Amino acid sequence: MPVGMKQEDVCAAIDVLTAKSQSCQGPANQISIVNIALAVSGFGPIPVVIQRLSDIVTTGGTTISQLQGTSPYSVKSDEDAVVKSLTTFVEVHQALLNILIGKSGLVPNLLPFVGPPLAQVLRQLESIVDTIAYELIDLVPDNAKDATTQKDSLDVTLSKAIDAWNGGINVSA
């Protein structure tokens, strides 16, 4: 009998992270030339995005604790379900990150003031997402290649988003 989380629980945990990522897209889309400066004072959509991303980091940390010690799955359908949930998370999260990348170029002269807090939470998120991905890859030995491809794809987009909000580069969407 496998030790740790059942496949259904793993998928449910990933789905919670997906829903939280989806909930960031609305506020991220609201970032505009008109309201981006409000972030300096803690107002507008950027602080909302930061708070929601921080919530993903916290929830992700809990998920990591739950995943640790879970034995690899030996049933192909269990592995397939986990990779499907991971793929959906990656797609939703990349959509959010691409919104953020695009919004970073709105007011380049303000980026040094409003960007670092967002870049910081994105770095925290990157660490959490990588750890979760490695845990999931270990759970799906027959599907490890597919899970690794998803992780690598998300890593690229996360790096671009971090760079964009760090104020160091101008990334086009």
Topology:
Blueprint lengths: L6 H24 L14 H23 L8 H28 L7 H29 L4 H22 L8
Helix pairs in contact: 1-2, 1-3, 2-4, 3-5, 4-5
Number of contiguous helices: 5
> Radius of gyration from the CA trace?
17 Å
Principal-axis shape: elongated
Q: pLDDT under 50 segments (min length 5)? A: 169-173
Helix content: over 70%
Query: Roughly what fraction of the amino acids lie in strands?
Result: under 5%
Largest sheet geometry: none
Terminus-to-terminus distance: 47 Å
Q: What structural category do the secondary elements indicate? A: mainly alpha
Tell me what you see in this structure.
By secondary structure, the protein is mainly α. It has one domain. Helices cover 73% and strands 0% of the residues. The protein has helices spanning 7-30, 45-67, 76-103, 111-139, 144-165. Mean pLDDT is 92; it is low at 169-173.
Tell me briefly what this model is.
This protein has helices at 7-30, 45-67, 76-103, 111-139, 144-165. It has 173 residues and is mainly α. α1 (7-30) packs parallel to α3.
Q: What labels would you give this structure?
A:
disordered C terminus, 5 helices, single chain, 173 residues
